User: What shape does this take?
Amino acid sequence: MGVNKTLHLQALTDINLYASHYQGDLGDKGNITYLYILSSIGIFILLIACINFMNLTTAKASQRAGEVGVRKTMGATRSSLIYQFLGESILLVVMATLFALILVQVSLPFFNYVTQKDLSLIGVNLLFLIGSLFAIALVTGIGAGSYPALYLSSFQPAIVLKNKRLSGEGSNWLRKGLVVVQFVVSITLISALAIIYTQMKFIQSQSLGFNPEYNVTIPLRTAEAKESYDNLKNTLQNLSGVSGVSASTSLPATPLMRDFSLYKKGSTMQDAVHHFVVFNDEEYFKTLGIKLVAGRELIYNSDSASWSSAKVNVLVNEESLKQMGIPLTEAIGATLYTEWRGQIKAHEIIGVVENFHQMSLHQKIEPLIFQIPASRNEFVYVTASIAANNYDSFIESVQEAWTSLNPNTPFESMLLSHQVKQQYEADNRMAMMITSFTSIAIIISCLGLYGLSIYVAERKTKEIGIRKVIGASIASIVSMLSTDFLKLIAVAFFIAVPISYYLMNEWLQTFSFRVEMNAWIFIVAGMVSFLIAWFAIGFESVKAAVNNPVDSLRNE
Assistant: This one.
């Protein structure tokens, strides 16, 4: 009786976007979750832009009120005015789309650098592209222009031609609500960005349990390379600046492909704990700087054993002891068992190593077992620990030795530290993309707030003039105009906090080792939003406050 395993089949067409949680898959993979996130952010930014258009158009409605009055007096119907304003909106969106295509072409190199893709407009199906863009422009134009068209076409000639104040208290609430929506999105993005950078900084500060720096890895991809391992190791050990050389079937930051389940004495295979297996030589732990916490290290001649051996000497990590329920003080000499081809195989623990992160901090630390293989042909990687600033000369010397030892096998090498960093490339790219999108969202939101400040300043022209006549200071008028706006940001903040907390908690769950979301992250995001909002409304508020009250009252 053994441990049950479940096998899964996956369509080749799903590998790129739906296999990010699998190890050892084909090449670099995308992540459908990140695609959904970026698509959602793009849609929200488009929504913010539409909201801004509505706010700016209605804020400047008084400038077109006379036009509407004259057209209606000349016999224009409301429906014809609606079609006119919708046509203007669609035309504006089409022009913006053409400008966006130019920006896409200009920004593609940066986008490809961030995403590590090679996208290009060349070779794209032009008919499909033009049709899609036209459809998006049409929907966006109608969506953004519908409310302004309905609002502007509702003006009565008798009112606007007499220069009477336009009513719109109901629409004023709608505009304020739209600004709240804008800043909910912006604050959520700012909070998300802060949490992402906090998590990435946390990852960089964590001890991995091994030393990735100045370790060069050389893959042994052919039988020729595997057979020449001993000669290669001797060559590497004699090079200047090399402090250690080892070989193994796996390294930190590389997938673990071998595994079996072990149970302790007095248990059965039903109680077995799943372990990943690393075959390594006697220099493995020293070269990688992995700490031995109990017992001794493996010795090649005395501890090597084949699969047919009844007993094997092994090392385990602390996680193995934890899951097996074996105290560290009782670990040395303890025997673990597995069943293989109908036989029970014993594994005596001769040493325990400190836990280290075999994979990224996305994954939890798994139980590991280490042993020396019967044949050195099992090895897949050679790792050399070199001195700082010795990389170029080391590679040059190794490449020369490699060519003479393995003339039919191309030489490859990589830094272990680079492999470790590669585990977080998708997260770093995500952070860069969200930074860009957050900046765009903030700028657009500020434009929306600026538009609303224009509208409010126009509505309160007479009130501002009277206040100045009776002695109100510029500061008090600016405060009066700003208070309502800051209340909107406060409302947006309290809506955005639970949303961003939920979304980022879901993202953090993809890490087995993660930061706690502290209140200060959301407080800082709120303060940044308040400062940005103050900057957006400050100009128009000060401008309205310093106007000559005589001019304001004369216009009224």
Summary: The chain is about 55% helix and 10% strand. The radius of gyration is 34 Å. Residues 170 and 176 are 10 Å apart (CA to CA). The chain has a mean pLDDT of 82.
